[in-house]
Amino acid sequence: MTSMNAHAGELSPVDALAPIFKASGDPLRLEILRVLRRDTFGVLELSQLFDMRQSGMSHHLKVMHKAGLLEPQREGNAIFYRRPLHLDSDKLTDHTIRQIFETVDRAPLATHLQERIDAIRAQRADQSQAFFARHSDQFREQQELIAAFDLYAEPTAELIRKRANKQDWTTALEIGPGEGAFLPVLSELFAQVVALDNSRDMLAKATRTCIDERLANVDLVEGVTDTLLARGDAFDLVVANMVLHHVPSPADIFLDAAALMNNGGCFIVSDLCSHDQDWAKENCGDLWLGFEPEELTSWAADANLVAGEQLFIGLRNGFQVQVREFWKSAPVS
């Protein structure tokens, strides 16, 4: 029989903990928590990962959600699941959940699960690449359905200028330069700039921008962050403008950016805040409908990056852009 607080009629601390331990007391559910350490997956994807019927997976997710171990994230018409973003360290139940996460994360991920996760990420990447291959000629028009370039590029450029003036920075990397519209800013501030994109069509447009703008210090590279990690490249600044919502695993971009940065380096991100405009997936090739600021902060913390300045820009069409900086050391004041 459940014990109750005689005066307030509330669950006792022990009773409040019981559903958490019950929901997590299953090997499969612990594995689900493990694969959701940094990624966000839909019900169908999780069913594929664990080779089980969707109805069975939905039941497990419902139990875990009710216990506070997971929270749903709507992406258009689809529901994805992630670990909760808001956990209060002073609250006993939240402290317990955090301890469960920390414990399960110490267990190595099974090889077959990692391979299936890689396959899902590859499917997402193929989807994004296919979109840009089909619509590279309309890239600017489609992007500006959401946010005009100058609305996020100028605040990002101003932040970089402010930081570069106080640092002895010489090298910069732009992940996903698109048509290369931001490259003139980086070319002016840095001795060496690398522009990395996995779309050959978009790189061709960025190349044309470099030729037209006479940007002689920009090296255009076709590939992904792993390409540069394999080369042993290192940068003082890494920037990703409106890129994260196109990549298969945004959390991994933070890990790779940290690995690619020199000590004292900075990762600057501009991207959409979470929204419900599902048409952006079809019209703009978006894989994700923006991000909660806490998601970026959490991914940065996992990569041992320190959050610095942040700016939020409201747009007339209801979208909101966040410009964030994350340091590989204490942020510069």
Low-confidence stretches: 3-7
Helix content: 40-55%
Q: Largest beta sheet, briefly?
A: 7 strands, mixed
- What is the overall shape? globular
In spatial order, strands of the major sheet run 6-5-4-7-8-10-9
Count of runs of 4 or more consecutive helical residues: 14
Number of strands: 10
Question: Rounded to an integer, what's the Rg over CA atoms?
Answer: 22 Å
Question: What is the top-level CATH class of the largest domain?
Answer: Alpha Beta
**Element-level helix/strand string:** HHEHHEEHHHHEHEHEHEHEHHEE
Instruction: Write down the CATH topology of the largest domain.
Output: Rossmann fold
Strand content: 15-25%
Oligomer: single chain
CATH architectural label of the largest domain: 3-Layer(aba) Sandwich
- CATH homologous superfamily assignment of the largest domain: Vaccinia Virus protein VP39
Computed structural class: alpha/beta
How far the N terminus sits from the C terminus, by CA atoms, comes to 56 Å
Q: Report mean pLDDT, rounded to a whole number.
A: 89
Structural domains: how many: 2
